[in-house]
Amino acid sequence: MKPKKIKNKSQQVNAPKEPEISANQISVFEKYGIKIALGLIAVIAVCCFKDFLLQQKIYLFKDIGSDSLNASWPWMAHSADYIAQYGVPSWSFNMGMGQNILSFSFYDPFDYILYLFGKDNMPHLIIYKELIKIILAGFLFFKYLKLLKLSNYTATVGSMMFAFCGYGVLGGGWFPVFSFEVFNAALLLFCFELLYQKGKWYWFALPIFLISISRPFNLWMYALFLAFYILFRLIQNEEKINSKKTILLFAKIIGVSILGLGLSAPLFLEHIQVLIDSPRGSGPDSYRGILSAAPMFHTSDKMEFGTGMMRLFANDILGSGIKFKGWQNFLEAPVFYCGIPCLLLFSQFFQFLKKPVKRAAIVLLAIWILPIIFPYFRKAFWLFNGDYYRTYSFFVALTLIFFSANAFDKLVEQKKINLITLLVSTGILFCLLNYPYFTAKDIVDGGVRFFAELALLVYATLIYLIAKKKDNLTYKYAFVAFLFIELTYFSWCTVNRRETVSAKDLKIKIGYNDYSLEAINYLKQTDKSFYRIDKNYFSSPAMHGSLNDGMVQNYYGTSSYNPFNQMHYINYLKTMGIINKVNEHESRWSPGLINRFILESLNDVKYILTKTGYTQPVWRASHD
Q1: Please, what is the Cα angle at 231 between 230 and 234, to 5 degrees?
Q2: Residue 157 — φ and ψ, nearest 5°?
């Protein structure tokens, strides 16, 4: 028999014991859990939105975010009027020359809370709706991270970064449906983990229901995202996918999703019908042919790629609002920002993974990163319906948050860090921040870039100290404190360095509250017949003229700004030569019949409002 090897017990006996953690050394995050996370998120939100909460500003934007004034607000205002007068929204002559408006009233289901207060009070309450969505998104994401067995500390960090990711903060001031999407994504992940880990399948029907009543097209995008996420989670937990278990899990998800679709059927079918009846759903207006014909491996140009890289660090690093100088505009450009710690931490995730999981993580990351380099795949993600970032940007940010939160939790728990990876990541990020992507000068905001550079140094130092120091409580607090400052500063820039409607604007005779209202009310009192009104001016106070004045000022017009205008309305305008027959942009921005006096007469345009008298001499032939 071979002799047994006996370990030297004296080394174990004499080895220093790990110091016991006293009660006063326990992190307040572990004591109070989600209360701390929600408190921090709420305080950041109050700091960012202070002027809006105090009603000095209204959360409607006049600058490049004019869609909040020219699209979102008209839909909300008209839905509130319609519900108060008739009940459930249905057919309305206020949108274009007539269209079913039910689906548009549900783009952001949170709007139905505001409808209870009436149209006049709603502008003042929009900010509270956005605040509720931010806090709820942070709450749900915290709960989701806890289901992943993360500590309260790292769940707090992750929920803060998620709640104030660039897509949610920027999108909420553009179309509120984007901030609703952030809330619903957190709900979707949370409910999936409940189904996967605890067998509570019924909750999963809720986010499917909410997506279906809001924007059914998102079902495709979130199904794609969730499929990749589920496969990674299966490999992460079991290292090797069990075909039978995987098929059963997907079958259960599909079954519950069908239940969610069934619950949403009345509204879901309305959305589908509106899509089918629009030029974008059928007809020659779609960009599908042009976008799908592009070379598959054609790379992004320097301006687009540089904008994406810079907007990893902050929404406003290339300017705010109309001062933005990157690719496209402030809203349509990539919105990858999700907290600078994510950029340093996500690469640390791989050291804690076994080979099969590491390979799966690389594939998952590549799926969402490669379309930044090869735009064809990003356009394919949108089924070639548009050259958009939007939800795709959010998925990139969400993947980075998922990787970094998991990495940070392991790093804190195991006191293990790959120093070389940290140093290389910091160096690469500094290079990305200072690389000359743009030929023009003064494109990059120097103050925002300086803060990003400072943040990289601070976070890299704190991450190292948290991993290496046994008594690291002070550094953990310092990390959260600096994250608080970063999220507050960057989010404040996004919503405050913009031109907004002021509370005073709502009280004086400008904007949608101009003297058009007196003229319209006079006509309604003197003429009870059916008629349409055209205007040769815009009442919206935004930098872009509004084609939806009739929805806010409650009259039947002929113009419409709508991503899904009624197909027959658009075909009529094409036939009459008012808009281009194959221009998707013009099918959304329909000018109506203004200045076409014969068509106005044929389509019951009985009155024309003008501030400059007879600008069209031919009007004398048909109007007094």
Answers
A1: 85
A2: -60, -45
Q: Dump pLDDT digits (tens) for 7-27.
A: 444 333 343 343 344 444 467
Residue recorded with tokens 């804190």:
412
Structure tokens at 498: 């913009």
User: d(Cα 274, Cα 362) in Å, to the nearest integer?
Assistant: 40
Report strand pairing: 605-609 vs 532-535.
Answer: parallel
Q: What's the farthest any 2 CA atoms get from each other in the chain?
A: 117
Residues 512 and 538: their CA atoms lie apart, in Å, by: 9
Distance CA 423, CA 457 (A): 10
Task: Return the pLDDT at 28.
Answer: 85
For every residue of 261-320, DSSP letters joined together read: HHHTHHHHHHHHHHHHTSTTTSSTT-SHHHHHTS-TTPPPPHHHHHHHHHTTT-TTTT-S
What does pTM read for this prediction?
Answer: 0.92
Contact status, residue 594 vs residue 535, Cβ threshold 8 Å: yes
What length does the chain have?
Answer: 624
Quickly count: other Cβ atoms within 10 Å of residue 156's Cβ: 30
Which residue(s) pair with 502 in the sheet? 57
> What is the DSSP annotation of 462-511?
HHHHHHH-SS-HHHHHHHHHHHHHHHHHHHHHHHHSS-EEETGGGTSS-G
- Asked if residues 165 and 334 have their Cβ atoms less than 8 Å apart, the reply is no
Q: What is the rounded CA–CA span in Å between residue 23 and residue 20? A: 10
Angle 423-424-425 from CA coordinates, rounded to 5°: 90
At 578, list the tokens. Answer: 């008012």
Which residues 6+ apart lie within 8 Å of 622 measured at CB? 597, 598, 600, 601
Lookup result for tokens 């220093």: 16
As a three-state string, the secondary structure of 4-38 is: CCCCCHHHHHHCCCCCCCCHHHCCHHHHHCHHHHH
Distance CA 372, CA 184 (A): 24
CA 475, CA 153: separation in Å to the nearest integer?
Answer: 12
Beta strands 99-100 and 91-92 are: antiparallel
* Distance of alpha carbon 111 from alpha carbon 137, whole angstroms: 16
Encode 36-47: b = buried (16+ Cβ within 10 Å), e = exposed.
bbbebbeebbee
Q: How far apart are CA 203 and CA 439, in angstroms?
A: 51
The predicted-structure confidence for 261-319, as pLDDT tens digits, reads as follows 999 999 999 989 888 888 876 556 667 778 888 899 999 999 999 999 999 999 999 99
DSSP letter string, 361-393: HHHHHHHHHHHHH-HHHHHHHTTTS-S--HHHH
- Helix (H, G, I), strand (E, B), or coil: what is residue 93? coil
Instruction: Please name the amino acid found at residue 42.
Output: A
